UniProtKB/TrEMBL annotation:
<dbReference type="Pfam" id="PF01243">
    <property type="entry name" value="PNPOx_N"/>
</dbReference>
<protein>
    <submittedName>
        <fullName>Pyridoxamine 5-phosphate oxidase</fullName>
    </submittedName>
</protein>
<dbReference type="InterPro" id="IPR012349">
    <property type="entry name" value="Split_barrel_FMN-bd"/>
</dbReference>
<dbReference type="InterPro" id="IPR011576">
    <property type="entry name" value="Pyridox_Oxase_N"/>
</dbReference>
<feature type="domain" description="Pyridoxamine 5'-phosphate oxidase N-terminal">
    <location>
        <begin position="170"/>
        <end position="260"/>
    </location>
</feature>
Length: 296
């Protein structure tokens, strides 16, 4: 493998890797990305009560969405296939993003705060009578950096989501929730339209609300892949998901993002074009966090 043909990265990720000076490290880490779901990965998936997905809606807006269910609701059904029981909730912006008879590109991340483990699986999804069937194209795990540890202390809270509040910009209460967040999920798409779902974490305040229409966050040192920032080089669309771990409420944002490179580091600047806030969207209730020792 040479510098001009390094799978599995597209030109956007390669450009960021070269700019930051981590091409060799990225090439090494990239060898961990495969198409198959190993037994340890399959076992991990079956223990998870939640899965985050990223995709574009019918208007091309990118969203990051939360799916939940009893352990086993996400299950490997073959070496490259996964079944997600229940699918996307009817209230979610991506509820109509997976039409019958079509393979829709999707990115997923299973993150377990109890163990600080996470796994990403990207591919295509088709609807089934019981939910979604996902065909994996990329499967890989990430390190536990910036994952806050939480205990799951309630899973059977009545899953009755409140009415969804839609908007174009953040309300004052939503801005405060973003400022208090220690974790969010981000969905992006590559030059071929293939989505990726990832995680960002830090101490509360690491996400700054510049205005009701603009957020920023620092891009901390990670695994050198630069899949998210690489996608943003190719396609500025992005979707963010903030979860209230104590109440199960979700705040989903769609918009565009770009990365600013300075001698002091990298900052991602996100422009909000749409919001969807859902009270009690998830039946899961989590403990207060034990912050990651990697957080700056």
């Amino acid at each position: 493998m040479d510098d001009t043909t390094p799978a599995p990265y597209h030109p956007g990720s390669l450009a960021v890797q070269a700019r930051v000076g981590v091409r060799a490290a990225a090439e090494h880490v990239g060898r961990s990305i495969g198409r198959g779901i190993r037994p340890v990965a399959a076992a991990f998936l079956e223990l998870q009560p939640m899965l985050v997905i990223g995709a574009a809606d019918g208007d091309g807006h990118v969203w990051s969405s939360l799916l939940t269910g009893p352990p086993g609701f996400v299950r490997a059904t073959g070496p490259t296939t996964v079944a997600v029981r229940g699918g996307v909730p009817a209230h979610d912006p991506l509820a109509a993003a997976f039409p019958e008879g079509r393979r829709t590109p999707v990115g997923t991340i299973a993150l377990d705060p109890r163990t600080r483990r996470r796994m990403r699986l990207n591919g295509t999804a088709t609807p089934t009578p019981h939910g979604l069937a996902v065909q994996a194209h990329e499967v890989f795990s990430n390190c536990p950096k910036y994952l806050q540890k939480r205990e799951l202390y309630e899973t059977d809270h009545p899953a009755v989501p409140g009415p969804v509040h839609h908007g174009e910009h953040l309300t004052p209460a939503q801005a405060e929730a973003v400022r208090a967040a220690d974790t969010f999920f981000v969905a992006t798409v590559g030059p071929d339209g293939a989505p990726d779902a990832s995680h960002r974490g830090g101490n509360p305040g690491f996400v700054r609300v510049v205005s009701p229409a603009e957020l920023t966050w620092p891009d901390y040192q990670g695994n050198a892949m630069f899949l998210t920032l690489g996608n943003l080089v190719a396609d500025a669309r992005a979707g963010l998901l903030f979860l209230d771990w104590a109440t199960g409420a979700t705040l989903q944002l769609t918009g565009t993002a770009r990365t600013e490179f300075t001698p002091e580091g990298r900052t991602v600047r996100f422009t909000v074009t749409g919001t969807a806030e859902t009270p009690h969207a998830a039946p899961l209730r989590w403990s207060a966090p034990e912050y990651s020792p990697a957080n700056p």
